[in-house]
Each structure stands twice: as C-alpha cells, then as structure tokens.
Specification:
By secondary structure, this protein is mainly alpha-helical. The chain has 2 domains: 259 residues, Rhopdopsin 7-helix transmembrane proteins (Up-down Bundle), CATH 1.20.1070; 61 residues, no CATH class. The chain contains 11 helices and 4 strands. A two-stranded antiparallel ribbon has the order 1-2. A two-stranded antiparallel sheet has the order 3-4. The chain starts with 10 loop residues before the first helix and ends with a strand.
Length: 346
C-alpha cells in the first residue's frame, strides 16, 4: 500500500495544519462572541479587535494555501524560478498578515484585562501595556515590510536584505516579551483582588493558558537557525510556517478562553464587573434605569417611597473586607408645601 502523502513534500503538512487550526480559531471566536452577546446583549472593543484578528487570520490562511499551490513545501530543485518568485511574494504577505493578526489578538486580551481593572493606577498600567504592544507591532511590521530593499521587498533570496536570522530572532523574542507583559498585567490584577487564595487561583487559571503562546514561541526560536540557513528554502522554511500558524492559533484561542461562558459566569457571581457591558436582565440594571427615569420625570433627587436597604456593589467581591460596596440606608420621605423633602414620622 502506498502512503497517502508524498514524503518528498511538506505541502500537506502546511495545508492541513493551517486549515485545521483555522477551524479551531473560528470556533473559539464564535463561542466567545456568542457568549458575550448572550450575557450582555452587546459587543465591546475587545470583541471587535478579536473579530479583526480573525479576519486577518483567515486571509493569511488563504495566502499560505496559495503559496503551497505555487510550490511551497516542495524541494527547491522541483520549483521553477517563476514559481519561487510567487512563493516569496505569498510568504512576504503572509508574514505581514501574521503580525497584524497577532497584534490584534494581544490588544484584545489587554483591553479585556483593563475592563476588569478597578483602580486608576491599574488602568494606567494597562494603557502602558497597550502602548507597548502597539510599539512592538509598528517596529516588527515595518521592519518585516522593508527587510529587503525596494522594489523587490519580498525577495529574501536574491535581494539585498539585512540579517534575516537575526531579525526572526528579534521578532520571536520580542513576541515572548509582550506576552509575558500581558500575563503580568493579569497577575497584578489578581494580586489586587481582596479575596481568598482559592478564588485567586481560580481567577489566575483563566489566564494561565496564555503561557502556551510563550512555550510555542520558544519552540519557534529553536527552529529559526536551521530553517533560515537551509539551502532548500521552499522546503526548509515550512517548519517555521507551521509553528507560526500554531502560535497565531494559540494567541487567538487563549485571548478568547477567559470570555467563554463558564468563566464569565464565575466572574459575575463573584462580583467582578466588566466595564462597558451591562446585563439588561439584571436587577441592578433595571433598578438604576428606573431610578434615572423617575428622577428626570419628578425633577428632584428623592424618590417618593423607598423602604428597603439597597446594596450597591461596585467592587470585586461581595464578602471582601476591602470591598468598595456602599450601603445606602433610605427612609420614606414626603415633601412639604415648599417642595423640600421632609421625614415622615414613624
């Protein structure tokens, strides 16, 4: 019996990995968006960033398949000069799309973590993290785009380019740094929560899978030297393409992981408030909306009849000693003839 795939070509490996992981990414983003819309009936900025990341991921997958169709995955001796020229163009476009998709998934996660941040100091740190991600994106994007001299900026084989191996090491190494910064952002947030160690560990577990991206990128570092020094570029670079697809998939999936229904439900039941979204079915939402409408209609700040104590929770944990919950004790009021509020006698 013959083998299903030819051993002298890596094109099935590249194609199958690319499309299987793309399906995983699409399912992850769909689950995230479905969960958010079901719980909050709206999407937020981090969701939009994730959708954009998915779009670039899809386009990149198509570009990789076009490169494979042009001879990528075959040995260099089996590829014509015109085919190799097309392969280099597709790899060039794919590398730029990869960086854009990776950046958007990083920003999506960073923005989501910021939406959970309670204090202005933590929000400032979150803004700094987002700025560092954008700076990394600009440097790596334009560095990759103009790695080789114009007009053949895609020609890494015959063109005048700066050290390709050193540049790949820089991109991968700085990618690890930005992911560790995002992870530290989440850990600082968890450390600031006044709650039990057990609940902190559960919360930390939501962000721990992000370290898989770092692990995959470290694996990428081990392949760079062997792949870039290969005299068989259409065959030798395939391993780098596969690991990049894995990194991209993990980056998007782990950015969606914390917003799946079990984790969002856990956060809500433990008093965590996600900025920018309100659940129209919740009691707090209905009450605040009715109070706002009532005050605007009556023209003063005191409702006519309130006999219950209202607990307004604005912090991470209802039972936390450091919670910023405010208990507003209210009593029945009436107005005197001059329109001023007057306490009714018991």
């Amino acid at each position: 019996m013959g083998t299903r795939f030819k051993t002298e070509s890596k094109d099935p490996e590249v194609n199958v990995t690319t499309w299987v992981l793309l399906v995983v990414v699409i399912l992850s983003v769909s689950a995230r968006l479905g969960t958010k819309f079901n719980l909050f009936h709206k999407l937020t900025v981090d969701d939009i960033l994730m959708v954009a990341s998915l779009v670039f991921c899809i386009v990149q997958s198509i570009i990789i398949s076009m490169a494979v169709a042009s001879g990528y995955g075959k040995h260099f001796r089996d590829v014509s000069p015109s085919e190799f020229d097309q392969v280099m163009k597709y790899l060039y476009a794919g590398s730029l799309l990869y960086l854009i998709s990776l950046t958007l998934s990083k920003l999506s996660l960073a923005v989501f973590i910021r939406s959970l941040t309670p204090t202005s100091k933590d929000r400032l740190y979150a803004r700094i993290v987002e700025g560092m991600i954008c700076a990394w994106a600009l440097v790596t994007f334009f560095g990759t785009a103009f790695q080789c001299s114009a007009p053949r900026t895609w020609d890494f084989w015959n063109g005048k380019c700066f050290n390709e191996m050193a540049w790949r090491f820089f991109v991968s190494g700085s990618n690890i740094v930005t992911d560790l910064i995002i992870f530290s952002q989440a850990m600082i947030l968890i450390y600031s929560i006044q709650t039990s160690v057990k609940r902190r560990m559960i919360f930390a577990g939501i962000f721990m899978p992000r370290l898989l991206v770092t692990a995959a990128t470290i694996g990428q570092l081990s392949l760079i030297r062997r792949s870039t020094e290969s005299a068989d570029p259409t065959y030798g670079l395939c391993d780098l393409t596969v690991i990049e697809v894995i990194i991209q998939c993990l980056s998007i999936v782990t950015a969606c992981w914390g917003q799946l229904k079990p984790f969002l439900s856990w956060m809500r039941t433990n008093g965590l408030k996600i900025e920018g979204v309100d659940d129209p079915t919740s009691w707090n939402y209905k009450y605040s909306r009715s109070q706002t409408q009532g005050r605007s209609q009556r023209g003063h700040d005191f409702p006519l009849s309130m006999r219950d104590q209202i607990l307004v929770t604005q912090d991470w944990e209802v039972d936390s000693q450091s919670s910023r919950a405010q208990i507003i004790e209210t009593h029945p009021w009436s107005t005197d003839g001059k329109g001023s509020p007057e306490r009714l006698s018991g």
